[in-house]
Amino acid sequence: MRTEQGEAAVGDLLVVDVGPVAHGGHCVARHEGRVLFVRHTLPGEQVRAQVTEIGPGGRFLRADAVEVLRPAPARVAPPCPWSGPGRCGGCDWQHVGLDGQRALKRDVVLEQFSRLAGLDLVAHLGRDVVVEAVPGDRDGLGWRTRVEFAVTAEGRPGLRRHRSHDIVPVDDCLIADPQVTGTGVLSGSYPGATAVDVVAPSVGEPVVVPVPDGPVPVLQERVALADGDLELEVSARGFWQVHPGAARTFVSTVLEWLAPRTGEHALDLYAGVGVFAAALARRVGPQGSVTAVEGDRTATGHARDNLAQFASVEVLRDRVDRAVRRMARSGRVTDLVVLDPPRTGAGRQVCRDVAALRPRAIGYVACDPAALARDVGYLAEHGYVLRDLRAFDAFPMTHHLELVAVLDPP
Ligand SMILES: C[S@@+](CC[C@H](N)C(=O)[O-])C[C@H]1O[C@@H](n2cnc3c(N)ncnc32)[C@H](O)[C@@H]1O
């Protein structure tokens, strides 16, 4: 099927040679001069790709590889029977071995830093970037402790098709923690619900929360750090890292790099329920102080409870941009900053105001390499230099990863 202009249309089948991986779980190919973002393939493959979407203004096409004509060596049989073209959209890389997935994620990180921060990461760090397994990972499966299942009009839970509101009924989800599926959620019926959240916390039993009307329990999460466990309350629908080894790994890495000293002041920006603030508060001690800034009302309430034991911690419910603007304008300074923003990143203004507080180090936890690369570029405008970076495969089988970085002042 062709458009009137003779260009490819949705549903067309095109034979393409697949080029490099791009951010978002797809690879780049070209057809008659147009860019195609192709899912379910790998660099170096030749595939028959079915066009699924025409991008805005026809500038690019999206497509699914529906037949592999020349497979790449990293291709494997997907462990999940619900993955693949037109099926569940939750995973991007089920058809790639774990080492291959991590190599693709590394390439995306390097490409994003080169494009958005103007930084050759390998040359800058003087070593390659290795995407590491999160400690405790089991073959990239069974890690997801928080899953939101979509619910059909008939009340049946399932997972969404890629870039679609359609719901694919599934009997299992292989990346979910077995405790999540062990609740029986997938054989349950939730009439009237739009979604059902299932959470397997590190302390206590898993919970099933129909959305929007189910009661939302408060859960306990334990984070085992070298200087003792932290235990924090968190809403079943609030933000918490989903890989069971993630919070400990990211907090330990940030602490190691920031090396907080007794008596210092630290800022925990985008603090959630206060896990970084709590870890920092223990290190700076009662002679020091920590300010946690979080915008969400429920998370702030939990942060206040979680941090009540530290007399030197202040929790501000505010937008980070407003809070740091105020601090910078008042001439305040700080020793350490932790930034853990949502996927959009902190942005230019927050980076400028954070730099104005003249911290001796900035720890940055990022779920999007593009956002981190952009913010590293903004912080560089104020002299802050990337000292180190680690990449963690906190979301195996998907294109997502988590980066932890540290920046130093000029
Ligand atoms: C990636 S989470 C990190 C939470 C926490 N640091 C943790 O590790 O559990 C980002 C947090 O930033 C909060 N947030 C998002 N945008 C914000 C803003 N503009 N101002 C303040 N908080 C914001 C969200 O509510 C969320 O709790």
CATH C-level class of the largest domain: Alpha Beta
SSE string, helices as H and strands as E = EEEEEHHEEEEHEEEEHEHEHEHEHEHEE
Strand fraction: 25-35%
Structural class: alpha/beta
What is the name of the CATH topology of the largest domain?
A: Rossmann fold
Oligomer type = single chain
Q: Tell me the number of helical segments per DSSP (H or I, 4 or more residues long).
A: 9
Strand count, sense and barrel status of the largest sheet are: 8 strands, mixed
Shape, principal axes of CA atoms: globular
**In percent, how helical is the residue content?**
10-25%
Low-confidence stretches: none
- The overall average pLDDT, rounded, is 96
Describe the structure.
This protein has 410 residues and is α/β, with parallel strands linked by helices. It has 3 domains: 13-75, Nucleic acid-binding proteins (OB fold (Dihydrolipoamide Acetyltransferase, E2P)); 146-216, no CATH class; 219-408, Rossmann fold, CATH 3.40.50.150. The chain is built from 9 helices and 20 strands. The protein has helices at 98-116, 121-125, 178-181, 246-258, 275-284, 297-307, 320-329, 348-356, 369-380; strands spanning 13-22, 26-31, 34-39, 46-54, 60-70, 131-133, 146-151, 157-160, 167-169, 195-199, 207-211, 218-225, 228-235, 265-269, 289-294, 313-317, 336-339, 361-366, 385-393, 402-408. The strands form 4 sheets. It has an 8-stranded mixed beta sheet, sandwiched between helices. Helix 6 (297-307) links the parallel strand 15 and strand 16. Helix 7 packs parallel to helix 8. The chain is globular and about 65 Å long. The termini are far apart. The mean pLDDT is 96. The structure holds S-adenosylmethionine. S-adenosylmethionine (SAM) binds next to helix 5 and strand 15.
